[in-house]
Amino acid sequence: MNYLLEVGLSKKDVRSMIFRFSPLLGYSVELVMKPKLEFLLRTMKKPLKAVVEYPRYFSYSLEGKIKPRFWVLQHRNIDCSLTDMFAKNDELFAEEYLGIGGLLEKPLR
């Protein structure tokens, strides 16, 4: 968790993140945390505190979920919290932000 302290979070923030999402302790800094945090700060332009509020952000695939959802929201000029962006399953996300929730269901045979 030294990495989170090095990037500017307080010990209190890091403790809060671990308390709310303990799997954070097992994530690789180089493979998981650093690339996702850099994308959050540089591309998404979110504040560092956003990961304190939603530490589960680190659990999502950068290529499979974070980037695609960000690009959808950016294209639609929607700015929302990480919780709003990722706490919904794919169907609810599509329904709320694309208006196509039912289209993601498997057809009945």
UniProtKB/TrEMBL annotation:
SMART domains: Mterf. InterPro entries: MTERF (IPR003690), MTERF_sf (IPR038538). Pfam families: mTERF (PF02536). GO terms for biological process: DNA-templated transcription termination. One of its GO terms (molecular function) is nucleic acid binding. Keywords: Transcription, Transcription regulation, Transcription termination, Transit peptide. Belongs to the mTERF family. This is Uncharacterized protein. It comes from Arundo donax (Giant reed).
